[in-house]
Design a protein that fits this description.
The protein has 245 residues and is of the alpha+beta class. The protein is 47% helix and 11% strand. The longest helix has 24 residues. The relative contact order is 0.16. The mean pLDDT is 98. The chain binds flavin mononucleotide.
Amino acid sequence: MNPTIQLLQEHRSIRKYTDQAVSDEMIETIVQTGMAAATSSNLQATTVVRVRQPATRAAIATLAGGQTHVSTAGAFLVWCADLHRSALACDIGGEKLEAGMTEHFIIATVDVALAAQNAVAAAESLGLGICYIGGIRNDPQKVADLLKLPDQVYPVFGLCLGWPAQDPERKPRLPLSVTLKEEAYDATGDQQAIDGYDEKLKTYYRNRTQGKVNRTWSEDMARLLGKESRPHMRTFLAGRGFTMR
Ligand SMILES: Cc1cc2nc3c(=O)[nH]c(=O)nc-3n(C[C@H](O)[C@H](O)[C@H](O)COP(=O)(O)O)c2cc1C
């Protein structure tokens, strides 16, 4: 296994950080590495807002559901899908951006995810720990207001970065028989493989929490997907110009 593959396979989210600062230079290198990721038609729809102000960090930590690591991480970045800049480029290029296209929403959001994950790999290669924060979408309007995001820009997720003050075990993933298919989608054997994974994840949680958490992956999924999830997102996105047509 080469060192890059080893680094990527050793990922685990870090939610406790030391007080040691993360240098501006490091953050710039990390974000620049993110921007080197592939981008749909060279759209480059990712804009990152670094939040330094403790009051803003605390407000985001609270609205993300009391996630203190948003405040305590050495750095906190909000990754935004940005068609505002694309509209400007369109103007310069002599066309009006055709607003509200679902396809534009998809490519902008995919761009952000690819750039962020490239940045994460860079950060982890420097010894930093990271944690994505989807919790910012609990109140995306408040985040957009705090960061003064213009029209056609929406916050996809936050990202904590910092020097790890914990060394958690890696969280096991589903077996490859479930996630890698040959030629066509064949779900034969998936249920059995998921049963096996459920037991594995239960053991992982039990070890991590000294027996306090005793859940399977299927139970996690039922809790997550068996009810409405952030139903405000559709209206929020429409209000930003992502009307999905
Ligand atoms: C887009 C995204 C949003 C996430 N949001 C949160 C979050 O708000 N809070 C948190 O503690 N972890 C968050 N996570 C981390 C996941 O819970 C974590 O990646 C997953 O459980 C797998 O664990 P691992 O990263 O340690 O392997 C998020 C991950 C992703 C990719």
